[in-house]
Amino acid sequence: MDAAGQRELAVSTFSRVWELLELAERTPEEIDEMIHAVHVSCYVWSKIGGPANVARGEWQCARVYSTLGRADSALWHARRGLQLTEAGGEGFEDWDLPGAHQALAHAHLAAGDTSEARRWAALARAGVARVEDPEDREVIEGQIAELGLED
Fold this sequence. Notes:
The chain is an all-alpha fold. The protein is 77% helix and 0% strand. It has a single domain, classed as Tetratricopeptide repeat domain (Serine Threonine Protein Phosphatase 5, Tetratricopeptide repeat, Alpha Horseshoe).
């Protein structure tokens, strides 16, 4: 597969995962598709993208597993995403770190650890206040609000 095809695969699988995450209910086949697609996207980005693409792939894996209530996998990918984000490199934006923090909040909530979820949500809230672009800030704030945790 040429570079353009790889990029299209990475983008299309990433987008498909979002479509599946937005469903109120999923069939077993859709759950399988979501899990497989998120790993394909993350893998391809790890081969063709920069550090930010890889961290965002790990973030999306964490989100999928948090949504499915699979805490061990959610925590693994959220921690890996944070590690990559903190290491920095090409392509990171001001919303990546609060995004990584909210991924950890979701993962801890999936694990039933509300105290840790609140801690990571507070870090995400503090970081999102420094996000310059209002649309980017709104996305992260919405993801934090989905936690259902009070300030």
